[in-house]
C-alpha cells in the first residue's frame, strides 16, 4: 500500500470489490467511476447533498427518520418536508400530492427496513416511487444501511437495482455489516455525480485511509466479510426471537408490535403510556431505550419505542425487558 497521496475516490481494489459485491448480492450494476468510498455513509450523504442541492431546494424525508441525515441535508441548504410513514414504508401517495404544490428536488429514504419503524417499503410503492422520481425529476437518496440483515426470505433489492435513469444515489455502509468505528461507507451514482462528490471530498479530506481500505479489500476478496455477515445474520435472527419472547412474556398487553422481517430493532406501540417517563425510569435501572420523540420530524413525544436487539446478548435482552416491565409508569 502506498503511503503517499492516492485516489481520493478510494483504494482501487476496494472500489472494484465493493462494486462487484453490490452488483452480485444487491443487483445494483456498478460501472467504472460510479463508486466513491467515504468515511461512513454519513459523509457520502453530505457530499451527495452538497453536490445535487442548491440552497432552498425542497427535500422530502420520512416523518419518522434518521436525524443525522436530516442535519446533513439542512447543512447543504435543503428545506425539509416530512412525508408520513406507515406499515408499508413512506407514503408515495403523500409524496405525489406534495409534488403538486412544491418542486421536490430530492427524497431521502430508508426503503429496506425503514429507520426507525423497520417497515419494508412495499413493492407497489417501490415502483410508484421510481416512476414519480422519473416523472418529476426527483433524486432519490437511498440509504441502504442494513442490507444484509433480512431474516425472513431474501433481502429485498434496493431501489437502485431497478433505477434505469440514474435517479438514485445509493448510499451503503460497512458500519452494520462490519463495524461503525471503521468509518467506511460508499456512494454509487452516475459517474458525473461521483466526480463532483469526489472533487468536493478532496477539499475536506484529501483521501480515505488507504491502509485500512486495502485491508478491507483483502477481507472482501477472501470472502471474510460475507462469512461474517452470514454469521451475524444468524445471531441477530436469534436475538430477534429472544426479544419477541421477552416482549410476549413481560410486556404483553402493554406493547404491541409486528415482528420485523429484518433489521436490528423492534418498533413497538405502547398506547396510553408516557414513554418519556418510562425511559427515565428504565434508565435508573440501567436500561436505555429510544422513544419515538428522537425520530419524529416534529420532535413530539408519541407512545412508540424502538428496541434494539442486535447489539446485546440473549441474556441481556431478557434482563433488559424484565427491568423495562418493572419500570412501566403506572397511573
Ligand atoms: C439510518 C442509518 N443510516 C446510516 C447509518 C450508518 O451511518 P455511517 O455509515 O455513517 O456509520 C446508520 C447508523 O446508525 C443509520 O441508522
- The average pLDDT score comes to 96
Number of helices: 10
Envelope shape = globular
Helix fraction, binned, reads: 40-55%
Topology order in helix (H) and strand (E) letters: HEHEHEEEHEHEEEHHHEEHEEH
What strand order characterises the main sheet?
1-9-8-7-6-2-3
Radius of gyration: 20 Å
Q: Helices and strands: which structural class?
A: alpha/beta
Number of strands: 13
Bound compounds, each kind once, are: pyridoxal-5'-phosphate
Sheet with most strands: 7 strands, mixed
Q: Tell me the span between the first and last alpha carbons.
A: 63 Å
State which percent range the strand residues make up.
Answer: 15-25%
Q: Unreliable stretches, pLDDT < 50, 5 or more residues?
A: none
Compact summary:
By secondary structure, the protein is α/β, with parallel strands linked by helices. The chain is built from ten helices and 13 strands. 44% of the residues are buried.
Question: Any key phrases for this structure?
Answer:
331 residues, seven-stranded mixed sheet, 16% strand, binds pyridoxal-5'-phosphate
What does this protein structure show overall?
- With 331 residues, the protein is an alpha/beta fold.
- 41% of the residues lie in helices and 16% in strands.
- The chain has helices at 12-26, 40-52, 67-75, 92-101, 123-136, 191-204, 210-221, 224-250, 275-284, 314-326; strands at 35-38, 58-62, 79-83, 85-86, 89-90, 104-109, 139-143, 168-173, 185-188, 256-257, 265-269, 290-291, 304-308.
- It has a 7-stranded mixed β-sheet, with helices on both faces. A 4-stranded antiparallel β-sheet has the order 10-11-13-12, covered by helices on one side. Strands 4-5 form a two-stranded antiparallel sheet.
- Helix 2 runs parallel beside helix 3 (67-75).
- The chain is globular.
- The chain starts with 11 loop residues before the first helix and ends in a 5-residue tail after the last helix.
- The model has no long low-confidence stretch (mean pLDDT 96).
- Pyridoxal-5'-phosphate is lined by residues 40-42, 66, 110, 115, 143, 145, 173, 175, 180, 185.
- Pyridoxal-5'-phosphate binds at residues 40-42, 66, 110, 115, 143, 145, 173, 175, 180, 185.
